[in-house]
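Quick check before the chapter quiz. The format below is the same one you will see on the exam, so make sure you can read both the input and the output lines.
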Amino acid sequence: MLGNFQKSQLRIEIAASASAIHDSLLRTEQLKKWLLGQRFAPGIPDELSQGIKFTTWTGPISIHHQVDVAKSNCLRLLLSGGIDGFHEWYWGDGWVQSHLEGVSLMPLNLGQTLSLLSLRQFLVEKNRR
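Here is the expected output.
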């Protein structure tokens, strides 16, 4: 894999319950609504669970995901392709934390920051309904 090793860990406050954050990260219909710039391969199940494999694309770059851990407050994805590494999510009432490490040509910190802000905005709008 060509690219630079990158590592980023971000935590933000979100006005949402742990269960709402859980559903936004593990229920794929919700995940597709807030994950910016990502196209999902067809056939992804309704909910992510351990062992599930799926592919997303950011423009022409494919990223293969394997769900390593999926629990009530944690999600760990092993990544290959456009990013070789892992992405961990942890959450609770009012907060979410993302830890991303990998080798990539893409600026991972920028994508991670935009994703967290998009998730927060999605949950704010969801709470308004």
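If your answer matched, good. The longest helix spans residues 108-128.
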